[in-house]
Specification:
Elements lengths: L7 H6 L2 E6 L3 H17 L4 E6 L11 H5 L3 H7 L3 E5 L5 H13 L4 E4 L5 H11 L4 E6 L7 H7 L4 E4 L11 H13 L16 H15 L6 E5 L11 H12 L8 E5 L5 H11 L4 E4 L7 H6 L4 E5 L2 H8 L4 E5 L14 E5 L12 H7 L1
Parallel strand pairs: 1-2, 1-4, 2-3, 4-5, 5-6, 7-8, 7-10, 8-9, 10-11, 11-12
């Protein structure tokens, strides 16, 4: 068994470690298990987390949206992080965060960034000038000499993972492999299922909202999420309406209520669309105050239908059956809990998610 890239004796004598990552909700859904396992293996170490905002901009009009990123609510609530750097969405705040991190005098800095890893190798060294720095490394390229100079700042490097399309490794296995290679911390497959610990006040708010919507009804609840950050992963609202109408025509779903997820800035438009469709017991929803509004509502549902975004992974975390609509492009991101997940994949590799038909979804039900 090869030795860990980060010397065990350095881990034992250090008092804290800084992890740097550009995280989406889906990433953290699986990485959370690895951070927890690391914290259990090294209980004397304080874990600090730098959440880098890849959409960083000098455009002040975008700062309120970036500042309200729901992932921050989740990582701040995790008991194994002693500090979270979440103010990196503007150039000025980035410089301020770097200065604060340097003042911590970290002896260990680890970058888990896979996008632009050379940039993050430079950032890791900037925040830990005297630290042992580990990070990701792309393959050597004669066309990118500056990238190679950045990698020389690393004391240890992991190669970026490459997807084997014939036998793709699930992303949770990739992440677990990082922690095994870096630290010798092993997370068994049965320990990789996602989870989310929802504070009681958000469960109470979800119950109050559902009581208001249900109005005493006792039918099933179906959560539909058709939106992702890119159009390639979205499903048309016309198909959402068609699906709801078709399900309500079936005996087993006739009394069901439907919750349609929306981006905060699109709530009004989605609500107007649903009203125009005349769909009974159908409500728009958006987690506008706190991340935990979303999983608290998801766990109260009987079925979740979602495109390939965080909602389908959170469905596994709250142990609710999910029908996931996906492209062929990223098979490593299928929901991990096969027992509770049905994946419908677009027929051709070049197809977007909107190629999945309503009939395909109905057939799975």
């Amino acid at each position: 068994m090869p030795s860990p890239l980060v010397p065990p004796e350095l881990l034992q004598k250090s008092d804290k470690i800084l992890f740097i990552a550009h995280l989406a909700l889906g990433d953290f859904t699986y990485l959370q298990n690895d951070f927890r396992a690391f914290a259990q293996a090294y209980p004397h170490l304080k874990l600090h987390l730098w959440v880098d905002e890849v959409r960083r901009t000098a455009d002040a009009s975008q700062w309120p949206m970036l500042k309200a990123y729901s992932l921050y609510d989740w990582v701040r609530a995790c008991p194994f992080f002693a500090r979270v750097y979440d103010q990196t969405y503007s150039p000025q705040l980035l410089r301020q965060s770097v200065a604060e991190a340097r003042a911590e005098r970290y002896s260990l800095v680890v970058s888990l960034a896979t996008l632009r890893p050379a940039q993050y190798a430079r950032l890791a060294r900037a925040v830990g000038p005297q630290a042992f720095v580990a990070g990701m490394r792309q393959r050597f390229s004669l066309l990118a000499p500056q990238r190679e100079l950045a990698y020389r700042r690393l004391d240890a490097a992991l190669p970026l993972y490459r997807l084997e399309r014939a036998n793709p490794q699930h992303i949770s296995g990739v992440y677990a492999g990082w922690f095994a290679d870096l630290f010798g911390v092993r997370v068994a497959p049965e320990q990789r299922l996602p989870y989310v610990e929802i504070p009681p006040p958000w469960r109470q708010r979800a119950d109050a909202l559902l009581h208001q919507w249900d109005a005493g009804g006792s039918g099933k609840r179906v959560f539909v999420n058709a939106f992702a950050k890119t159009r390639k992963r979205c499903w048309p609202m016309a198909k959402v309406a068609e699906l709801i109408r078709a399900m309500q025509a079936r005996d087993e779903w006739r009394d069901a209520s439907f919750i349609v997820n929306a981006m905060p800035h699109e709530m009004a438009a989605i609500g107007e669309f649903l009203r125009a469709q005349g769909l009974p017991r159908t409500h728009p929803f958006s987690a506008r105050e706190n991340f935990f509004e979303l999983p608290a509502l998801l766990e109260r549902c009987d079925l979740i239908v979602s495109v390939e975004t965080a909602v389908m992974h959170l469905a596994n975390a709250v142990q609710v059956p999910v029908v996931a609509l996906m492209r062929q492009k990223n098979p490593e991101w299928v929901p991990l809990d096969a027992r509770r997940s049905t994946v419908i994949t677009a027929a051709r590799r070049r197809d977007w998610v909107d190629a999945v038909t309503v009939q395909q979804v109905l057939e799975t039900l």
